[in-house]
Amino acid sequence: MPARGSPWGLTLPELLIALAVVALLAALATPSFRELRRRAGLSAAVNQMVGALHYARSVAILRSVPTVVCLTADGSQCVEREDIPAHGWLVFSDLERSSPVRLDAGDELLRTYRLSSGLTATGTRTALTFWPVTRAGTTGTFTFCSAGRQPRGRAVVVSRVGRPRAVQGEVPCQP
């Protein structure tokens, strides 16, 4: 309890020291928060891709039509080469069965996905086709990376029977 007649509060030097300590702690925590956001964004992208691959596989079997998941840079067409970074992916029923795989006017677009800002995706293939039988798919790996100088990302691998799985831990990103 302060003495009678003395004011409550802090002096200016005490307030400046407290603010300096808070600023120092915030500066030390900022890189950790950025890393946490980067990892959360990568995990979300991987989970969305696994969900899209399961969805495409089930649509192919249930509707008896080839269904494609392809990487896209512009949100409307599949990328043509594996070295082009994508910013999302498309899921569509490939009614036209074009080669190379692309979204044609006669195809049915089922879903469109967009990656969070600062993330890109590449693949060992630009598109994976699921055929209308239970054990027919295309193998491939999709790698998700953060923009900038982050050397590690996350990946999704699709097995020969069409089952996707997220790779545990981080994988190297191509520069």
Task: Describe the SSE topology.
Blueprint lengths: L11 H52 L3 E6 L15 E6 L14 E7 L4 E5 L3 E4 L9 E7 L5 E7 L5 E3 L4 E2 L3
Antiparallel strand pairs: 1-2, 1-5, 2-3, 4-6, 6-7, 7-8, 7-9
Characterization of this structure:
The chain is of the alpha+beta class. Helices cover 30% and strands 27% of the residues. Strands 4, 6, 7, 8 and 9 form a five-stranded antiparallel β-sheet that branches. Strands 3-2-1-5 form a four-stranded antiparallel β-sheet. The radius of gyration is 24 Å and the shape is elongated.
Question: Key features?
Answer:
175 residues, alpha+beta, 5-stranded antiparallel beta sheet, 4-stranded antiparallel beta sheet, 9 strands, elongated
Q: What share of residues is helical?
A: 25-40%
Give helix and strand order, one letter per element, not per position. Answer: HEEEEEEEEE
Terminal CA distance reads 63 Å
The beta-strand count equals: 9
Helix and strand composition category? alpha+beta
Q: Hey, roughly how much beta strand do the residues contain?
A: 25-35%
Overall form: elongated
Low-confidence stretches: none
Tell me, rounded to a whole number, the average pLDDT: 85
Major sheet: size, sense and barrel closure?
A: 5 strands, antiparallel
Determine the number of helices (DSSP H or I, runs of at least 4 residues). 1
- What is the radius of gyration? 24 Å
